Amino acid sequence: MESGTPMPKSPLSFFRKDREETPWYYQDLRKRRPRAARVASVVAGTVLTAAVAFAATNWTVGLTGGSSGEAQAGTVSNLSITAVAVPAATNLLFPGGNGDVVATITNPNAVAVTLTALSLPSSTTYATGYTASNLTGAIAGCTSTVGVNQSDVIWNFSAGSNPHTLTTPLVIGASSSLTVTFTNDASMTVAAPAACEAAYFSLPSLTGVTASETAGATATPSPTTDAWTS
């Protein structure tokens, strides 16, 4: 609309000639404002009602006697200890001397286990000699059979009483393995046959361990070294 041009009047203006009239477009705006205000009031009232509905009251709620929950204990599994060739033993066996034993300890449990001692077989239980480091190729003249070319290789200190306490407790992490070199914990008597020269030995089976689950304990880094000295 051009400047200076009067605004059009409402079509009903001829019925209101005797009173001052508000232009129709202003009347329309005034009719809309109260409706918007009513909507805002309804929304505010709803918010206020919701706030009141969640307010704390003086009616306290207690607990029924015997209320509880359920838990369940897990199961434990034995450790396993197996001969391995890596890392290679540093101290090798000679008649009348001691040598290293390398083994991997596996913990299948869901928590860490701390191993503190091992139980050994008797001092008349001998190792079997092999030609290869993976313990294949049994040597006929270097056996575990007593009185038949026996290797005369045994666990060191196996003549003593069990268990044999480790110098340092070993922590095997949950569902993990730890490779250990047991320093000088194999022994070869002076009667070892010549066929056992340069052989790799599978030491006789251990008879037990002293170990317990220690959830949260820091695992011993692998590989490591340890020993028992009596």
What's the shape? elongated
List the helices and strands in order: HEEEEEEEEEE
Give me the count of strands.
10
Largest sheet descriptor: 5 strands, mixed
Looking at the chains present, what oligomeric state does this protein adopt?
single chain
Determine the mean pLDDT.
Answer: 87
* Poorly predicted spans: none
Number of domains: 2
Structural class: alpha+beta
Percent helix range: 10-25%
Q: Strand share of the residues?
A: 25-35%
Distance between the termini: 112 Å
What radius of gyration results from the CA coordinates?
Answer: 45 Å
Number of helical regions: 1
SSE map:
Layout: H1 24-53, E1 80-83, E2 98-107, E3 113-119, E4 128-130, E5 153-155, E6 164-172, E7 176-188, E8 200-202, E9 208-213, E10 224-226
Parallel strand pairs: 7-10
Antiparallel strand pairs: 1-2, 2-7, 3-6, 3-9, 4-8, 5-7
Folded structure, characterized:
By secondary structure, the protein is of the alpha+beta class. It folds into two domains: 13-52; 80-226, no CATH class. It is 13% helix and 27% strand. It is built from one helix and ten strands. The protein has one helix at 24-53, and strands at residues 80-83, 98-107, 113-119, 128-130, 153-155, 164-172, 176-188, 200-202, 208-213, 224-226. The strands form three sheets. Strands 1, 2, 5, 7 and 10 form a five-stranded mixed sheet that branches. It has a three-stranded antiparallel sheet with strand order 6-3-9, with no helix packed on it. The longest helix is centred in the N-terminal third of the chain and has 30 residues, at 24-53.
